[in-house]
């Protein structure tokens, strides 16, 4: 993991550089969660990489370390209703925009995993940014751990779906539960794998 993009931004005069990433674009249930993280100049956190490549235990350890070292961080959430209303890409953008607006101090540059957002702050979208930027990797971990915790809470409300295990992703077990019990209120009813079982639901 390099600090190349952060260093390039600093050479251009920027000082508070936020990395942004999301978790939860692909699942069939639950929210999409975005995180924005500003790390101190030169900060390197051992083992930090794309959250999908980390074990849950390592993500939890890094989550705490990022919280301790960050200049500031924030999360933004778009729930199932927002996803259904404006589509998953726009809901992801909205969650990212919420995260940026919640940062204090306000960043002067944004490094974003792949997509662009509506903001007056200069930004750079980086394909596979969660593997190429330390700041984006940090945001990836914060977003993933935050969303996983939300899905564990939903497991207590809707235990029949076993959200604790699959976190809403379309695993064979989850698809079987949807077929058997129908969608829950947090299922994304416009998504394939769910919409087929929404007959008669409002």
Account of the protein in words:
With 202 residues, the chain is of the alpha/beta class. It has helices at 4-11, 56-69, 80-86, 88-102, 129-132, 134-157, 163-166, 172-181; strands at residues 17-23, 32-38, 72-78, 109-113, 123-126. It has a five-stranded mixed beta sheet. A hairpin with an 8-residue loop joins strand 1 (17-23) and strand 2. It is elongated and about 55 Å long. The N and C termini lie far apart (46 Å).
Topology:
Elements: H1 4-11, E1 17-23, E2 32-38, H2 56-69, E3 72-78, H3 80-86, H4 88-102, E4 109-113, E5 123-126, H5 129-132, H6 134-157, H7 163-166, H8 172-181
Parallel strand pairs: 1-4, 4-5
Antiparallel strand pairs: 1-2, 2-3
Helix pairs in contact: 2-6, 3-4
What is the SS-derived class? alpha/beta
Sequence of secondary-structure elements: HEEHEHHEEHHHH
Q: Indicate the percent of residues in helices.
A: 40-55%
Low-confidence stretches: none
Taking the alpha carbons of the first and last residues, their distance comes to: 46 Å
Q: How would the global form be characterised?
A: elongated
**Oligomer status:** single chain
- Percent of sequence in beta strands: 5-15%
Radius of gyration: 17 Å
Reported for the largest beta sheet, the result is: 5 strands, mixed
Average pLDDT score: 95
Strand order of the largest sheet: 3-2-1-4-5
Number of helices: 8
User: Would you count the extended β strands for me?
Assistant: 5
